[in-house]
Structure formats: structure tokens, C-alpha cells
Specification:
By secondary structure, the chain is α/β, with parallel strands linked by helices. 50% of the residues lie in helices and 12% in strands. Helix 10 (244-273) crosses helix 12.
């Protein structure tokens, strides 16, 4: 098929095509407007309806601003014919007006999160590398259904607001790459409808089917596929309503709460670090125990996590945080608490008591000083 994105979208699109176009234009406006606009955009394009609709309207919007679009189709090499399929998707992207890249990755046969997580990690690493080389943001085609599935997955793991905020519409990772998900407020029916309006035929990936070739470690269907094809329809039947918008709304409410709690925790950390007590070392952090003890547990836990990160102790588990919290509110002489890359201890008494978070000798935090 030979087509052009701007011709397919048209000057005044309607229906699902209009919804997708408006969502992408709104997300891209800060990037395409002004003197600091992006020189290029990267779109993750699997060939499915979500990413194909995203690529179509992104090329249309970007071409009107004179900004090139690079689509990246990742070949995981996990099924016969995947390379030819990826090349076909890339050729379609070129016909829309994009510069198209096919990137082949190696997916580990075993991993903690199973094949689904391993493939996602390999895909994101490939996209991150290309985005960094292009100095460009990455656009991904996640929809409201993806958001709802992520909330359910994380609820099943017993997650709190920081995790239940689920997929962020805009995020910047540790490598400095910006990730945009303009379609989070839309449904899969919108992306499928947009492709149909434009006369584009999406690729159907068999690994997304509940009875597809990939299985979880115990032989059961992949978790996200099972949620998509079984759990969400069962919820809709049991509740007599579509649960997807409500789950997506929960993610937004958790994001709002998490932002507020995080801001409160930062203020608490700054306040608890003030005073005459010196820091324990170039990478250590010392916090006032009385200041921490006055805060609600949820805020105190976030303050401990932030202080540990600042001290170079890495990411703390829930058990780590609870043990450190015991030094603040349930201290009976215990300690020090051993942490992934250091330790936590309580020094002093009464109003002068301090929580000291120190990196282990030879840790990356100290070596970087």
C-alpha cells in the first residue's frame, strides 16, 4: 500500500481519526511549538492498531510542523516470519512519510518477569538507544485498556499509590529520554476505528492472544493477555458496567495522591535534615527522628526512601522501609539495619536523636565521590 499520512488524515478528520489526531496534537504541542522544538520524533511501531494509528496521526501532525518522524519496529525474533513482518510494517511506515527502522533484539529465554517482561525490556532498551542517538522523545501507543490492565496487575501484587498510578502519559527516565503516551485517554476501539477510516490494516500479533504461543512459567496464559481476554470481560459482566474508565480514573487519582504525598515527603526530608547535626559522610544522610516521628506513616516511608536514594543506598523494599521505620517509632535499642548498599542506625537520644543512613564502604555512591 502506498499512502501519505496527511492525505489519509485530511484537514478535518472525523470520528476515531479525529479523536486520535487531537490527542496527539495536544501532546505534541509543547514539543513542536517554539524555538526549542524537537528536531525529530521517535514512534514505537509494532504494527498493531494502537501503534499504527499513533504513527499515522503523528506523521501527519509532525509533517505540518516540518519535523521528521522515525518509526522503530522491533523484531524480537521469537516466531517464524517475524523479520519479514517487521520489514512489512516498516515499509508501510515509509509510505506514510516516516523514516522507518527495524531493530532486531535478543530476548532472554528466562527472566524474573517471564517472556512478556523480557520482550518489553528488550524493546524499551532498543527504543531508548535510538531516541538517545536522535535526541528525540519517544511516542508509544498505550490506550485506556492498557492503563486498566496495568492497574489490575499491580493491585494483584498489593501495590500502593506510587505503583497504582500505573502508566504515565509523560515521563523522563534515568537516561534522559522522554516517553509520551498521547492515547492513554482513548480506547482500543478508537485506534482500530482510526486505522479502518484511513484504510490501514493492522498486524495481529498471535502472542497477544490468551491461547497464544507464549506462556507464563506455570504454563498458564500470559498475565496481561488473561486480563485482557478474561478478567476485564468477567468484571464487566459481574458489575454490569465497563470497568476500564473507572480503573483508569483510579490510576489518575492515585497519581494525584502520590504527587501530593511525595511533595510532603520532600518537605519533611528537607526539614528533618536541617539543624546542627552534621552529615555522617560525603554520601550519607542524617535525619531528625522527632521530625520524622511526627509525620504520618505514608509520608515518613516516602521520606525514608528519598533519603536512602540520596545517600546512595539504592531502592528499598517494603521490609527495608519497615525496619528503618522501626528505628523511628519503635526503637528499643535495635540497629544498625542492613540495607542493599549500606545501613541505617539511630544515634543520640530525645530531641537530638538522628536517623543515619550510610553507604557501605566501597559502594558506588562512595566511589563516585
Amino acid at each position: 500500500m502506498c499512502a501519505d499520512a496527511s492525505r489519509l488524515v485530511g484537514p478535518n478528520p472525523s470520528g476515531p481519526l479525529r479523536a486520535c489526531s487531537l490527542a496527539v496534537r495536544a501532546a505534541l504541542h509543547p514539543i513542536l511549538a517554539g524555538g526549542t522544538r524537537a528536531r525529530r520524533l521517535v514512534v514505537g511501531l509494532s504494527g498493531g492498531a494502537d501503534s499504527l494509528a499513533l504513527a499515522l496521526v503523528t506523521v501527519d501532525a509532525a509533517s505540518r510542523a516540518g519535523v521528521p518522524v522515525v518509526t522503530v519496529t522491533v523484531d524480537h525474533g521469537l516466531r517464524p516470519g517475524s523479520r519479514a513482518e517487521a520489514e512489512s510494517v516498516a515499509e508501510l511506515a515509509r509510505s506514510l512519510g516516516a523514516d522507518a527502522i527495524v531493530e532486531t533484539v535478543t530476548v532472554p529465554s528466562r527472566g524474573a518477569g517471564g517472556p512478556e517482561a523480557a520482550a518489553r525490556d528488550a524493546r524499551r532498551a532498543a527504543l531508548r538507544a535510538i531516541a538517545a542517538s536522535e535526541h528525540a522523545p519517544v511516542l508509544l501507543g498505550h490506550t485506556m485498556e492498557d492503563q486498566a490492565e496495568t492497574v489490575l496487575l499491580r493491585l494483584a501484587r498489593g501495590s500502593g499509590p506510587s505503583s497504582l498510578r500505573a502508566i504515565a502519559p509523560l515521563a523522563r527516565d534515568e537516561a534522559g529520554v522522554t516517553w509520551l503516551r498521547p492515547l492513554l485517554g482513548l480506547r482500543r476501539a478508537d485506534t482500530a476505528g482510526a486505522c479502518a477510516q484511513a484504510g490501514l490494516t493492522p498486524v495481529e500479533d498471535p502472542t497477544n492472544a490468551v491461547d497464544g504461543p507464549w506462556r507464563a512459567a506455570d504454563g498458564s496464559p500470559l498475565r496481561r493477555s488473561a486480563l485482557r481476554h478474561r478478567a476485564l470481560p468477567a468484571l464487566a459482566s459481574a458489575l454490569g458496567m465497563d470497568p476500564v474508565p473507572a480503573l483508569a480514573r483510579s490510576a489518575q487519582l492515585c497519581a494525584d495522591d502520590d504527587d501530593a504525598l511525595r511533595q510532603w515527603a520532600r518537605q519533611l526530608t528537607r526539614g528533618a535534615r536541617s539543624g546542627d547535626a552534621p552529615e555522617p559522610g560525603p554520601s550519607g544522610v542524617s535525619l531528625s527522628v522527632p521530625a520524622l516521628a511526627q509525620a504520618p506513616r505514608a509520608v515518613r516511608a516516602r521520606a525514608v526512601r528519598e533519603a536512602a536514594s540520596r545517600a546512595g543506598l539504592g531502592s528499598l523494599s517494603l521490609a527495608n522501609v519497615e525496619a528503618v521505620d522501626g528505628l523511628v517509632v519503635a526503637w528499643r535499642g535495635q540497629g544498625p539495619i542492613h540495607l542493599p548498599s549500606g545501613s541505617a542506625s539511630r544515634v543520640g537520644r530525645g530531641a537530638e536523636a538522628r536517623l543515619v543512613l550510610s553507604p557501605r564502604a566501597g559502594s558506588p555512591a562512595l566511589r563516585s565521590q
